[in-house]
Design goal:
The chain starts with a strand and ends with a helix. The protein contains 2 helices and 2 strands, in the order E-E-H-H. It has a two-stranded antiparallel sheet. Helix 1 packs antiparallel against helix 2. It is mostly helical.
């Protein structure tokens, strides 16, 4: 059975609750990051804050990618 749904040019994939929660955290962080950038941009040491938010975003994104990659490996090997 195919759980993926296609609507014209849009494809929807079903992911685990954990992955969905991780993606929601990333989405929320991007919103927070936008606010931090607009608040600190052009301020003294503001570039350090902005760089820290970029590093945090990259870390969260990397952790999510590692989780998805592990899930794919588990699916391919039949462990899920």
């Amino acid at each position: 059975m195919n759980n993926n749904k296609s609507n014209e040019n849009k494809t929807t994939y079903k992911v685990s609750k954990t992955t969905a929660d991780m993606l929601n955290i990333l989405r929320e962080f991007v919103s927070w990051q936008d606010k931090a950038i607009s608040l600190f941009e052009g301020r003294e040491r503001g570039d350090e804050v902005i760089e820290a938010t970029v590093a945090t975003f990259d870390s969260i994104r990397g952790a999510i990618a590692a989780n998805v990659e592990q899930n794919l490996c588990n699916l391919q090997s039949g462990r899920i």
